[in-house]
Specification:
Strand order of the largest sheet: 5-12-7-8-9
Shape: elongated
Structural class: alpha+beta
Strand content: 15-25%
Radius of gyration: 41 Å
CATH superfamily of the largest domain: f41 fragment of flagellin, N-terminal domain
CATH architecture of the largest domain: Up-down Bundle
Number of domains: 3
Number of strands: 12
Largest sheet: 5 strands, antiparallel
CATH class of the largest domain: Mainly Alpha
Number of helices: 8
Distance between the termini: 23 Å
Helix content: 40-55%
Mean pLDDT: 87
């Protein structure tokens, strides 16, 4: 078989080009640290690397989400801690105002400090995050969560957001609540349970009130009917036997019977009455509908009472009792929210660690498939470089072969 001169040239040039191509590829592997430069180098390995890269990108996004939600929850916890500290100070002042030994200027001074605490709490309830969103406004985060209108006929401080709460994804199967709406945290706080005397036939009735709040609360919770208002009406009937009998007007059921002496105080289901009465006389009263208000509103109401020198002591004591119950209920609500935030932070931390372990494992698997073995690649590079040099050196010798050299 004859080999033409052109075939010799083509074969040698092809060999040199292949050697150069292999050398360049090895150089790229050494420069990038990647064994797979293009999918054709290892189609199966390239597909696995693509899936692992997508998984790693997803885990990195989850970690960024985790950082964001952790920062938001820590900010909320700081807000609730500051509100708790302010309410504890306000509670101390309210107790002091009810001591009965303060002058009107002293009460006004306490009222002025309570007003400042109220405004501080109002600002905290309207806390914004780094993006300017109001933390407790629900889905209406561009607007203030709470508004303050001293001239309002109802509550001066009211919730103006909505009930929306946000969740953020921390893993494929896990998401946690990142925000809470202000109504649930601050506004949905029960005020003090009370009753109102609607009618009586006694000769004299003085200062009916709740003297045992815990006992009355139990009675209220068990018997208040939000559907049928008639079942919230009660009557005390004074019997010839020297007893006072409490009856539910709506159902006719006898609720309790206690001893009674005309002109002296008696207590039934936590309610205290002082009445001058004879057999057959009655006192009618109704359970007041439960109210809900924020602690800022509670402080607003007691502060106004303290600033008003015309309020008598019984009204002041009633307002103080109302505010103490409202503040205690509000503190309990905040305590529950802080516990919820703590549990969410624990979940976020645990998920972060799990995602980190999975990210490390995925990167290790990708590295095993994709990354170059530098020792092997360096040896291959040296071999390919030698082969190329040999091809370049031998080509001129081969190309000069001629029978004329042997004549």
């Amino acid at each position: 078989m004859r080999i033409s001169t052109s075939q010799i040239y083509d074969q040698n040039i092809r060999s040199i080009m292949n050697n150069q191509e292999d050398l360049v590829k090895t150089q790229q592997q050494l420069a990038t640290g990647k064994r797979i430069i293009s999918p054709s180098d290892d189609p199966v390995g390239a597909a696995k690397v693509l899936r692992l890269t997508e998984e790693i990108d997803e885990l990195e996004q989850f970690q960024r989400n985790n950082d964001l939600v952790t920062g938001s929850l820590e900010q909320q916890e700081a807000v609730l801690t500051n509100i708790t500290n302010s309410i504890n100070r306000a509670r101390t002042l309210v107790v002091q105002a009810g001591s009965g030994i303060l002058s009107d200027p002293d009460k006004r001074a306490i009222g002025a400090e309570l007003e400042q605490i109220k405004l501080e709490i109002f600002d905290l309830m309207n806390t914004q995050d780094a993006d300017g969103n109001y933390l407790y406004a629900g889905y209406q985060s561009a607007n203030q969560a709470f508004t303050y209108n001293p001239a309002a006929t109802g509550n001066a401080i009211s919730f103006s957001g909505d009930a929306g709460v946000s969740f953020i994804q921390l893993s494929n199967s896990s998401s946690i609540q990142s925000t809470s709406n202000g109504y649930e945290v601050f506004e949905n706080v029960l005020s003090r349970f009370k009753f109102s005397v609607t009618n009586d036939t006694v000769a004299n009735l003085s200062n009916p009130n709740v003297s045992e709040q815990g006992t009355f609360d139990t009675f209220f919770n068990k018997n208040y009917d939000p559907v049928t208002s008639a079942n919230n009406d009660y009557q005390i009937t004074f019997l010839a036997s020297g007893e006072a009998q409490l009856t539910n007007v709506g159902t006719g059921a006898v609720v309790d019977t206690v001893g009674f002496e005309s002109g002296k105080a008696f207590t039934v289901k936590g309610m205290q009455f002082t009445a001058s009465a004879v057999a057959g006389d009655t006192i009618e009263f109704s359970l007041d509908a439960p109210e809900k208000k924020s602690m800022a509103q509670t402080l607003h109401e007691v502060q106004e009472i303290l600033m008003d020198s015309t309020i008598d002591n019984s009204a002041l004591q009633e307002a103080i009792a109302d505010s103490l119950v409202g503040l205690d209920n509000g503190l309990e609500k905040i305590s529950l929210e802080r516990a919820s935030i703590g549990s969410r932070l624990n979940i976020a931390e645990s998920t972060y660690e799990s995602n980190l372990d999975m990210e490390i494992a995925a990167k290790s698997s990708r590295s095993a498939i994709q990354d170059v073995d530098y020792a092997e690649a360096s040896s291959e590079f040296a071999k390919q470089e030698t082969a190329l040099e040999a091809a370049l050196a031998s080509f001129p010798q081969v190309s000069n072969l001629s029978l004329f050299n042997y004549i």
